[in-house]
Structure formats: structure tokens, C-alpha cells
Amino acid sequence: MTTTAKPPVEERKRPWPAVNEDNRFFWDGIAVGELRIQKCNECETLIHPPRPHCAGCGSFDPGYVVSSGIGTVYSYVVFHAPLAPPFVEPYSIAVVELAEGTRIVSQIIGIPPSEVRVGMPVALEFVEVEPGLTLPLFRPTES
Amino acid sequence: MHSELSGKAAIVGIGQTEFSKKSGRSELRLAVEAVKAAIADAGLEPSDIEGLTTFSLDTNPEIDVARAMGIPELKFMSRIHYGGGAACAVVHQAAMAVLTGTAKYVVVYRAFNERSGRRFGAGQRNQPTAADAEQVAMSWLLPFGLVTPASWVAMFARRYMHQFGATSEDFGRVSVVARKHAANNPNAWFYGKPITLEDHQNSPWIVDPLHLLDCCQESDGGVALVVTTAERARDLPQRPAYISAAAQGAAEDQHMMTSYYRPDEKVTALPEMGLVAKQLYETSGLTPDDINAAVIYDHFTPFVLPQLEAFGFCGRGEAKDFIRDGNLEIGGRLPLNTHGGQLGEAYIHGVNGVLEGVRQVRGTSSNQVDGLSNILVTAGTGVPTSGLILSRQ
Questions:
Q1: β-bridge pairing B374-378 and A133-140
Q2: Is there a contact between A66 and A80 (Cβ–Cβ < 8 Å)?
Q3: Given A48, A74, A80, which is nearest B207 (Cβ)?
Q4: Phi and psi of B89, rounded to 5°?
Q5: Structural contact between residues B354 and B13, judged by C-beta atoms closer than 8 angstroms
Q6: Where on the phi/psi map is residue B285: left (φ > 0), alpha (ψ -120 to 50), or beta?
Q7: Do B158 and A76 touch (CB under 8 A)?
Q8: Nearest CB to A78: which of B143, B207, B258?
Q9: CA B201-B206-B211 angle, 5° bins
Q10: The pLDDT value given to residue B352
Q11: Quick check: helix, strand or coil at residue A80?
């Protein structure tokens, strides 16, 4: 996977992520082909979206694990309107439940949106959706 | 039971503009028209008003409203965040202010040109302007195309359908009853325009599983109301709508309309509304059986169902059956959104629903519920939210 150089803001099409100290590990992971899930270095709890502090054990020491990229569709929608360029309607968006147990919002690619189903097994695929922006998307693993 | 609030404050005046798609006036003008009407309805003068409260999303600063109205001194100003989740919380703020003696009379207002101006339904398409916590949170959604409130709610709706066998038609029945009530309300945008379930099913997809007629309107307009103590209320011209309970709620692992990460049994259960329900019943000493009608926040129909469950009107997953059995009709167990809701009357971020609660208590609704003692009003769903029980005494 290669990602081209990041274009200036005015040339970006989708809303790009806002990156700060709390979520930089995630986007750094995308850049090197890893889907990272925050893992507390003290109590080893996995959590997504990440937080600067572990509400479970009180640690300020967040780490991460690299996800297997295997999951199932927990829920999904098919976006029709209002027209949201550069997205091309209809397109499907899903909440994917990863094998590690956390969930993440993503897109389902590789099948018509009308064929996505709750419980469908999916696998991670990194896609450069526009120049400079790579996202972790998911493709069904069974037809 | 925190009964320090229950029944000790009341809504004593209501005011509004017309509800339209293009007001042709500034948002500030709409706010001032509504505030002026509410103060007059309460039999008060602008100089009686000592506090103002509204949404953090409202574009009309307290000082601009006060200057335009001729309110000389403000001793209490507060804003509530989280969009429509503030709808009842602002009344809660006002009640606390009058009961602590901070202000004698507090006006709640909400006014916008949400159709002819900034349309919330268009979603968030812009590049982030800063990496603050709110924009970082949005970054888990927006790059993937989950950019509109309809899409955020649709994700819950699909899971709810999967869990409980609810169908698009079950959501549609909420819309049909709202439009039926709106059709009889001259203030409603859809006055005289009921719909059928077929109309709902045939309306275009917005975000599947949401049809167009699952989505509330976009509206221009302003509403306001006046809150004071029960003691002062008895000396004013209108029948007081006593605040039997008011509460806010945000629950564990709360996100902004996208709490998709909770344990499975909680994802579609709106635990924040459950927290509001628990407080409202504890504060008021009332039970679901005591509630005669409800204004349930209806920005999108699917979230009406888990709200009925959270308040104990039916069991978990049984709202579809409760609705199919006709309970939401006038004359039914729990007449719903008798003004037409935001689907039928107007989308004024839920505060127009509080006004309908007041009208039901006064006995002046276009779809009056006979013998009403208590009405529930809820605020925005999927967000940190709030609720009220308004009562006759």
C-alpha cells in the first residue's frame, strides 16, 4: 500500500480526519498499513474510539494492538441523500465489529450496497480514497 | 427522591412565531418576537425578566435579546449543548434558577432559520478547522461518508430492526400519526395534510432504512416560554403548567449521535434517555401509568420506539406492537405529539414540543387530551438529552 503526498487543504474532497495527540497513533498506523486499536498499557483493556485516559484503571499510558482486520457487519446504512460530494450515492457505511471485540465505523466495498447484511463477515482493506487519504475499509469475505 | 424541584416551578407563558420555510426575518428578530409573545402571555413586562437560557447552538446572544426586548438587567444566563438534547434541559435550568432565588422570571428561547439558513440535515462536509475533541470525534465518521444526522440515526435503526423485527412500516406509523395530528393543528406546517402508510413507504430513501417521511422537517421559526416559581405562578393569568420533574442525562460511553460502541444490549436502548426517565419518575413520584400523553422527540421516527420503551410504556423491543395497537392516537393509551411533532408541526429543536405540553396542561391544544393530568416531554435522542413532566395541580 502506498499513499501519495498530502495535497493542500483546498484540494481535499472528503472531510479529512482532525489529528491530535489522542488519535495520532491510529492515523500513523494507517500510514504503515496497520489498523490500530487503543490498548491500555496498564490493564490491557481495548477501547475504540480512543481516550487520553483509561476510565477502567486510571492509567494515562495508552498503547495499542494491531487488529487482525477480521470482523462482521454490526449495522449498516445505505446513503442516498442529500447528495454529498465527493461520495457517490448510493454507498454503504457500516459499523464493523472486529474480532478483537471493538467496533469501528467504515465503508463496505466490493458489493452493491443493497447486498450488505448484518452479520456479514468482512475483512480489512486499505484504500487510498483520494490522493493522500488512505482509509481502512472492509470487503465481504463470503459471497 | 429529589422532590426539591417537583411541582415548585411552572411554565406561565408561551410564545412563538409562525412556522415556515422562509421567515424573511433575522434569527434575532424571530427570537425577540417569540420572547415578546411569551412575556405578554404570562402577563408580565420585559423588566420582570431576570434570566435567559437557550441552546449553545442558538445564534442569538442573551444580551442581544435583552437589548432588543428592553430587559434591563440579567442575573442568570445559561446555555445547553448537544443540539436538540437541550430542549427540556433549558427548562430545567430555568426552574433551578427561579427555585434558588437567582432570578424571579426566566425566559427560555430557541429561534432559527433552519430551512432558509443553515440546514442541519445537510450534514458536515467541511475540512476540520482544529483538532479539538469534537472534531477528532467527528473524524471517526466523516471521512467514511457518515456525514448527516439521518445517517447517524439510520445506523441505530438498522440494528434495532435486526434485534427486534421492527420494520420500516413500524417507523412509518409514527410519521402517520404525527401528520394526522398536524393536520388538525392550524399552527402546523402540514396543517390539513395527513399522509398514509403508503405515502411513507413510497417516499424516497434518505439513508436506508430511513425514508424521507421518517425525517422531521426543516423549519424557520422561534419559540419561547416563561418559567417562575409555583407561588408566583398562582398570581398570573394563565393556568400554570407545573414542572413535576425535569432532568438531563448522558450515559456511559456517550457519543454525539453515534454511541455505537456500547455493550450490545445497550446500543439501541438509549441509556441516556433511560437515565432521564429514572430521574423524572423518581423526582415526580409518578409512574408510566400516570402519564396521559407524550411529546416524544421525533427528529427521526426510529428513535421514538426505544423512547417508549425507556419510559416503561411497553417492554424492550415491544414498541412496534404498542404502536400497531393504536396507543398513540387521540383516545389511545398515550396520545403522541398532539401538535404534529417535528414531523408535522415544525422543527424548532424540540422546544415547540414543550409549548405543546403547556397547551395540553392548559386545555388549549388543537388535539386536546380529555382529563389530562400529566404529560411527558422528551428532548433530542442519540445525544445527551433531557426530559420534563408537566402537570396540572
A1: unpaired
A2: no
A3: A80
A4: -65, -35
A5: no
A6: left
A7: yes
A8: B207
A9: 20
A10: 98
A11: coil
Is B207 an interface residue toward A (CB < 8 Å)?
Answer: yes
Q: What's the CA gap between B11 and B160, in Å, rounded?
A: 36
For residue B86, what are the CA distances in angstroms to B67, B81, B220, B293, B374? 24, 6, 18, 21, 21
The answer for residues whose C-beta is within 8 angstroms of residue B364's C-beta and 6 or more apart is: none
Position B13 pLDDT exceeds 80: yes
Check whether B89 has a pLDDT greater than 50. Answer: yes
Which of A11, A35, A75, A91 to probe by mutation at the B interface, max B CB count within 10 Å? A75
Domain boundaries, chain B: 9-117+216-391
pLDDT tens, per residue, chain A with 143 residues: 556 788 999 999 999 999 999 999 999 999 999 999 999 999 999 999 999 999 999 999 999 999 999 999 999 999 999 988 899 989 999 999 999 999 999 999 999 999 999 999 999 999 999 999 999 999 999 75
Question: Is the CB of B263 inside 8 Å of chain A's CB atoms?
Answer: no
Instruction: Give residue for cell 400497531.
Output: B324
Predicted confidence at residue B2, as pLDDT, reads 54
- How far is residue B251's CA from residue B87's CA, in Å, rounded to a whole number? 18
CA distance A139 to chain B (A): 14
Answer whether B140 touches A (CB < 8 Å). yes
- In this structure, the strands spanning A70-79 and A91-98 are antiparallel
What pLDDT, on the 0 to 100 scale, is given for residue B1? 45
Q: Domain spanning A68-143: which CATH class is it, in words?
A: mainly beta
With an 8 Å Cβ cutoff, is B120 touching chain A? no
ipTM above 0.85, yes or no: yes
Residues of B in contact with A95 (CB under 8 A): 155, 159, 260
- Residues B144/A15, Cβ–Cβ less than 8 Å: no
Task: Report which of A92, A89, A73 is spatially closest to residue A81, judged by C-alpha positions.
Answer: A89
C-alpha to C-alpha distance for A120 and A105, rounded to whole angstroms: 15
Q: What angle do CA B336, B337, B342 make, to 5 degrees?
A: 140
HSE-up of B159 (CA within 13 Å, CB side)?
28
- How far is the C-alpha of B220 from the C-alpha of B113, rounded, in Å? 4
Domain B9-117+216-391's class? alpha beta
Surface-to-core class of residue B268, CB atoms within 10 Å of its CB (0-12 exposed, 13-18 middle, 19+ buried): buried
- The catalytic residue positions of B are 297, 347
Give the pLDDT mean for B383-393.
97
